[in-house]
Amino acid sequence: MKKFKISNLYLVFIFILLYLPIAYLIFYSFNSGNNMNSFGGFSLSHYQEVFKDTRLWVIVINTIILGLLSSLIATIIGTIGAIAIYYLKNEKVRKRILNFNSVLMVMPDVMMGASFLVLFTFLIKIPMGFMTVLLSHIAFSIPIVVLMVLPRLYALNESMILAAEDLGASDFTILNKIILPNITGGVLTGFFMALTYSLDDFAVTFFVTGSGFTTLSVEIYSRVRTGISLEINALSTLMFIISLLLVVIYYIISQKENAFVKRRAVNE
Known about the structure:
InterPro entries: Bact_Polyamine_Transport (IPR051789), MetI-like (IPR000515), MetI-like_sf (IPR035906)
Membrane topology: Multi-pass membrane protein
GO cellular component, one term: plasma membrane
CATH topology: MetI-like fold
Shape: globular
Subcellular location: Cell membrane
Helix content: over 70%
Strand content: under 5%
Family: Belongs to the binding-protein-dependent transport system permease family. CysTW subfamily.
Order of helices and strands: HHHHHHHHHHH
Number of helices: 11
CATH architecture: Orthogonal Bundle
């Protein structure tokens, strides 16, 4: 019989602390009543209200377009940046770049949002709206993509690249035939992680959004300020399911990538 560990109790406590409010929110999204004081019976009326809200669906479409576009651009730039870092010969410069990349990852969202606000208001002077939100989401997604792609680059078999160079392959051929096929898992992982961050982001978006454009997270915050509605519960439940699906896709891609690396190691 296994001995009970304090670490297991701590883990259970953390999971309860994180997921109990979410479970409570989801449970009352099916309440036939109009508040979370008592459960009046099972009903899908609040979900029906969400699907009937035309303005809300425009915001949902805007959020999805923003997430896909910012993630795609960030993935392209982040992949190019990761390849550039991989080929850097100066070890000190490489470490400094990676340190700057890590700083962007751990920087508080409020500070990042305030920085973008100053940038777009006083330095570049871009009208607040879709473009400012898009640029901000691209900026904070690039470090995520770099961190996802770099480990795949370091796992590359350098002898394949050297052999291709000896056979006279151009840099484009090496990139297209050797590097990109071997880091596809990391690129896709970076894309889905960037998409998840973009769809869920509130703090940065709140600072740089304008009156003519908003995202789902900012809209939920605005509605909560006017009073708790179970329509918000239903909407938050749908967002939670979408985020969960993205995490599952990320997990499947990671598992396939790990299995591919193990098979390649056995074959070598």
